């Protein structure tokens, strides 16, 4: 089966992990701060805090931004459930903003309309989590402008988007947000097995994030009440978690980060080849726009509804492609359609563009080690079913 995405691990990656295994520290050694510094420099952010997953990163970012009981967090329905669950971990409430039907990202227009209504109802969000779906940057300047008017914080869930750029600058620089989150799960752009990172430009936030990932404990005398009682001394000054990354993972991350520019170039080439090979088919191809350079985590085509074109039936295509050993996938089931969210009162029909996207979306294989032959096979199998 040609999967829709997978990691690329070479001998340098393996050697980097083995070197840590032969050394003194398997965790809390020197690889973590090095990995953090390299990611921060790559993205142009002031601070980066490594954690054990993007889910933990989202949880910590919400806590550091003060999200709690009675607050609202808004996000897009077209994302992985973690983008919304982070609010529930904090005891806050979730609501959704429909997507832009062309880009698949949270719509700045829908956000503006919903904010105007919420301002009247007294239900403004404390945080909006913006997802760069498939690696395509969202309309950050417009969302940031709204955050200034309505006073909410912005977290970029950039799990799909390390290596993407927006208006000529790297995603991750926090120009339009308080925090940016990355995932290093194997299916994402670079991997540490499991892993994640939070970036921020604000020193106060970075200090809170460091506390939250490790039990709320500090060894910094300037953060303590009173004086340290000796060189062994630490204090717990808030409630944190054990969300730490290991040094083995960070070493793998450093090695993978070196390869990221090559990964992105390969992903862009594969996407461009799909664009060329599929442009005449009765499906719509991923949106492109000036100033929006995707990292191409996913290549999602959209099959128009069956009435318009009986051949372009997504469910049938999915089945047929799987039968041909091609691991196409569907990203994502709208979060508000999950039973856990339905039980909170969300219903079908509330976010129509997201629901239409879900009916039509089909993710094609895309990863750096996808061979030309494999891609040609995917294209041929798709073409003969659609022409
Ligand atoms: C993968 C993913 C996450 C969760 O990442 P983990 O590192 O697996 O916790 C969160 N948000 C989005 C959009 C994702 O794709």
Q: Helical percent range?
A: 25-40%
| Ligands bound to this protein structure | pyridoxal-5'-phosphate
Q: Which whole number gives the mean pLDDT? A: 97
* Topology as a string of helices (H) and strands (E): HHEHEHEHEHEEEEEHEEHEEHHHEH
Instruction: Tell me what portion of residues adopts beta-strand conformation.
Output: 5-15%
Radius of gyration: 22 Å
Strand order of the largest sheet: 1-9-8-5-4-2-3
The biggest sheet amounts to:
7 strands, mixed
* Helix and strand composition category: alpha/beta
Question: How is this structure best described in words?
Answer:
The chain has 387 residues and is an alpha/beta fold. It is 39% helix and 13% strand. It has 12 helices and 14 strands. The relative contact order is 0.17. It binds pyridoxal-5'-phosphate. The site of pyridoxal-5'-phosphate has 14 residues, from helix 3 and helix 4. Pyridoxal-5'-phosphate binds next to helix 3 and helix 4.
